[in-house]
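Minutes, methods subgroup
Present: GH (chair), OT, SY

1. OT presented the first of two proteins processed in the latest run. Sequence and structure tokens recorded below as shown on screen.
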Amino acid sequence: MHRLLPILLALLTSLSWGATPPNVVLYIADDHGRDDSSVYNPSGDAITPQMAKLAAAGLTFDQAFVASPACGPSRSALLSGLMPIRNGAEHNHEKPRPETQTMIRRLREAGYEVAAFGKVHHNKWIESVGADHVDPTRNNLEKSVQAYLQTRTGNRPLLLIVGDVRTHAPWREHDTYDGVDLTVPSHWVDTPDTQQTWENYLGEVTEVDTTLGNIDAIARAHFGTDDFLSIYTSDHGHAFPFGKWNLYDWGTQVAFIARWPGVIGPGTRTEAMISWIDIFPTLLEIAGADTPTEIDGRSFAAVLRGNSAHHRELIFTTHSGDGDKNIYPIRAIRDRRFKYIRNIHPDTYHTTHTDIQRRPGHGSLFNEWVAAAETDPQARDVVRKYHYRPAVEFYDIAQDPGETTNLVENPAYAAEVARLASALDDWMEQHGDNVRMEREPYALTKPYPGAGLTVKPGLHK
């Protein structure tokens, strides 16, 4: 009898959602900042009518986070339900360990057909984990998806994963925002190159938004209904300074919008805190399948159904590095109000592709930032905060969502600092996180390694 119990539980779970598991469209943008959407920032510059349309018909998560702010570790966490330290993909472009269970395999075992288009993971790893169809073509996603659906046979429920790379740097020039008075984020240095790069990036955001709407229309036509689960999200924040490769909310907090007619009420929002590692078990529960007990993720299906307004109390995020451009491991813990960041090697330069390469269409703006810092104290402070970081940063997110004022030495917050520091210590010990390094970091005692000059260190603020 005990052998039948898992089967009976899976059957009851499936029946609670309906007789047939739903089709699912999971749309993943590359490097799209959460606030670069009218859904999350109505007064901002981004023009995203399709995201707004999806949100008007569904549920917007205001507290969704990735496990890591670099493409490979973030996507590996999504597909495995495991934090980077546990699946093996800690540094960018690494793959999970061969024995790692994946969302794709488990959903296929649960009866799903899985098709992946565009960039779902690096290095063709997605092709090795058993999807029914993989098309890595990154251009004209609509054409690829349409062609596949037109020739598809059978009646298995479908998980359609679409990975759109256009918001990944470098960004092409667009005319979408020509003549628009744009406002760059206040924690940057506002220069002509910054304005142009911001405009180019926003043009890519709007193109992604258009394709999101087109894919939704194609899926509706194929399924003959809008009765399917549609999700829009991003693998981490934008690739501007303090976003991607960083554990500030600019890098780890992402858009997550879900529509599911008949299950999710239209135009709703939730403050439930979720992590990308939770998507795997959530889809398994929806499919009526058992969740592997060894994964880190926890299903938030109850939040989708409107049966719960809460999920996680703590969010852990990690970043270990990205080749020789970014050798700066960081760990962080966040609750609803406070963020504790631990910079593992504060005696080294924080660098990324932005300032190391300074490529046109992405990092060339950094040259203007450094030039401005020669005479502008505010610009100097921005560049210093980018490069030179203290061992610990602590922010009151409720009062300081931009994470501008480090409160670690403020005695009024000593108890909260100690609480989150202890929780992070425990988490790292439980997960065996010894901060694996693949390269030697750039010591402050050595010359700055970037492709140009920069500001000399100042006091940590």
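2. SY then presented the second protein from the same run.
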Amino acid sequence: KELIVNAAVSLILKITCKVDLQGAENIPLEGPAILITNHTTNLEGPLFYISLRPRKTRALAKRELWGPYFTKMAMEAWESVPVDRGGMDMKAIRSCFGVLDDGNFLCIAPEGTRSKNGALKKAMPGTTFFASRQGVPVYTMVQWGLLDLKKNMKKLRRTPVHLRCGEPFLIEKPGGGKIKAEDREKMADEMMFRLADLLPEELRGHYGDESKRTSDYIKPVQN
């Protein structure tokens, strides 16, 4: 099933998009690791998955994608983790820890919902839960261009899509101790500023003001 889905998605992307991928060398072939991304369209998931092969990547995805036949087939083939719009239940949380325990990449969109204009929105603090608890490296990956896909398809044009991958970092509370809600919000913002670094200035949105950037919770990954 995975081979069929991958072949179909790869063909569709090749026909409809001109993908420019830079920085993939920053992402190792094996995890465990967390991959955070921006979120503008449901097409990002397939694009990221195909672009990151042969890395084993499992993503959080809204439960509604298990409805339509083809998207359900893709979600099952890629072993995505279903989540409800209202938040994650214990089953989803256990699945996410299982992804990391198995040495795979857990892909999360910290914004939670799609940005209709492509600019970054405020992140949801809960995203930091897995990074801070597991102590695994966090990698960044963004795309821009997919929002133009429908418009270009009507004109029978391929859409330029830009993919950028950043360098890894760790998330931890200085001095240790219990991580409070305010810590998680600051952690999420610091992660998102790293994501914003990969985007054009006009798409950095909520994270376009450098004066609000802090680096209290982000630590470099030691080689």
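Chair's summary of item 2: The longest helix spans residues 181-196.
Next meeting: continue with the remaining queue.
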